Amino acid sequence: MTERRSGHNKLKPSLLDAVSRSSKTAEKMTRFGIRMSRKTRQTVSFISGVVIGFWIMLTIMTHVPDKDMTSPVSSTSEWTPGVPKEGWQAGYGPTSLESNQKHIYIGVMTARKYLNSRVVAVYETWGKQVPGKVEFFSAYDPKHRTPRGIPVVTNIPGIDDTYPPQKKSFLMLKYMHDFYIDKYEWFIRADDDVYIRVDKLQKFLRSVNSSKPLYIGQSESSQKNERLSMSSSDSFCLGGPGVILSRETLRRIAPHISHCLKNMYSKHEDVEIGRCIKRFANVSCTRASDTERIFFNDLKCYKKGSVQHLYPGLVQHVITVHPNKGPKDQYKFYTYFSALRLEVLQQRMLELFRTIDKMTNEL
Ligand SMILES: *[C@@H]1O[C@H](CO)[C@@H](O)[C@H](O)[C@H]1NC(C)=O
Ligand SMILES: *[C@@H]1O[C@H](CO)[C@@H](O)[C@H](O)[C@H]1NC(C)=O
Asked: Where are the transmembrane segments (predicted)?
């Protein structure tokens, strides 16, 4: 409980303020509480239903077999040479897996050599929790077969696995726009070695207006980096811990992506995305005091390949954790954050039991 409450409250003054929060987050559970405390038998059975629901959720939440894992995927694993001229040519298209929620789209940049390691780990942990859709972007290679059931997009002309992945990143954004702009509210560019706490991400984004041009992540002043054609007051979002674009931002930059690709001033993919967004969407990466704790990028651990541990103050805030290069570390964080979530749900269940108890006595 403490984790949930304090974490949520402390988010508000800084990042949430910076993205000018819309005031639609109402605590549904609290409302239930007030209404129910005055009600009778009918309500008791209703709560019991809720409690049983929770109980079922608790028992299955960590190991529910995901039906998506077994369904076929339409990702055409065919390389077609050429560059898209107007829109996308026949044969290119989204993969079929999509949850019925239309909130968040996450594009994960990966490479052929990670299809059977990092990609599987992401998809089996936070990837399958996304309220919307996740797709992985890699070059196509017949020798590296896509793991079954995982939505990998390999058919965008011009995408290869060269590093830095500027082309992959820009073309991925174009793809997101062309296929999904009206389907999702938020578009995230992620790496294959980031852990995303999807429940916290969703809660945060639900309280922000995606019709505004927003560009959210761990901001870094462009001063430190290639500043060409960016002023020192501009900032870009670091790529590693994930970059969030509102629908409006993606809509604004999409027509200019080929221009941005032709006019790059550095080898840093995230700087170039930032430059493009600044120029065509007129926004900088949101600056707030707490973004380093929310989008956590541990440079000290970078060489070790994974974040060793989170310090206590961080756990309340953190939404993304980077880097976790080894698949094992993704499962480690998945277990850890699932346990935290479980605690919150158990606490809530206890509260409901107490309410039932009290009401039964009053009857
Ligand atoms: C979201 O932002 C748009 C554009 O600024 C505005 O028209 C709309 O009223 C806002 N919606 C809410 C719920 O604040
Ligand atoms: C860009 O944004 C700034 C403030 O954020 C505003 O003053 C300016 O008019 C905007 N420019 C364009 C071209 O929309």
From this structure: 44-64
